[in-house]
Design a protein that fits this description.
- The chain is mostly helical.
- It has a domain of about 120 residues: 3-Layer(aba) Sandwich (Rossmann fold).
- About 55% of the residues lie in helices and about 10% in strands.
- It has seven helices and four strands.
- The strands form two sheets. Strands 1-2 form a two-stranded parallel ribbon.
- Helix 2 links the parallel strand 1 and strand 2.
- Helix 4 crosses helix 5.
- The longest helix is centred in the first third of the chain and has 19 residues.
- The chain is flat.
- The termini are far apart.
Length: about 180
């Protein structure tokens, strides 16, 4: 029964935020997950809290934008690729088991994990799984609005934030 309504929610776009000057705006994100593996309970806790806030704000009449985002910069994803490239069999077996949660064919799962020596293959595989899993949970996210920390427009946004905060005197240079 839940799947029927979840499909209805996402196909009708009830969680999509479109410009609407008649309602106050509310933007929410939660800490973006690294996607070097499948979602775990910590992701569930974090996104559920964000989802509760987003739903509450919608009930209060706000036009809520709750996008999905992924953290892909830094070392975790590259570390997975490096471990596989160095022939870490134990880690490869763990990843294969994780991939087999989504792919029922062991040969296909092994092929997918072999491709994880390229970090982009890790990102692309698990990004899609996070989205599918979050939809299955029923999160009230606008899945049309997705970004990753490596996207050029995201980097521009971060630069804009620093310039804006610096111009208001909110940033100071410390000793580090």
């Amino acid at each position: 029964m839940a799947e029927k309504w979840q499909m209805e929610w996402y196909s009708s776009g009830i969680f999509n935020a479109n410009p609407d000057n008649s309602r106050p705006k509310f933007f929410i994100t939660v800490p973006y997950p690294y996607i070097e593996g499948p979602p775990h309970i910590g992701h569930g806790r974090t996104f559920t809290i964000g989802d509760v806030v987003a739903r509450f704000k919608r009930m209060m009449g706000y036009n809520v934008l709750f996008p999905i985002a992924f953290h892909i910069t830094g070392t975790p994803i590259q570390a997975v690729a490096d471990r596989l490239s160095k022939g870490d069999a134990e880690y490869e077996n763990r990843l294969r088991r994780e991939v087999e949660m989504y792919v029922n064919d062991p040969v296909k799962a092994s092929e997918i994990v072999s491709g994880f020596k390229d970090p982009w293959n890790i990102v692309n595989f698990f990004k899609d799984k996070f989205i599918d899993d979050f939809k299955a949970i029923g999160y009230s996210m606008d899945f049309r609005r997705m970004f990753m920390t490596g996207d050029p427009h995201y980097s521009s946004f971060i630069i804009w934030q620093y310039v804006k905060l610096a111009s208001k005197g909110y940033l100071v240079r410390g000793r580090h």
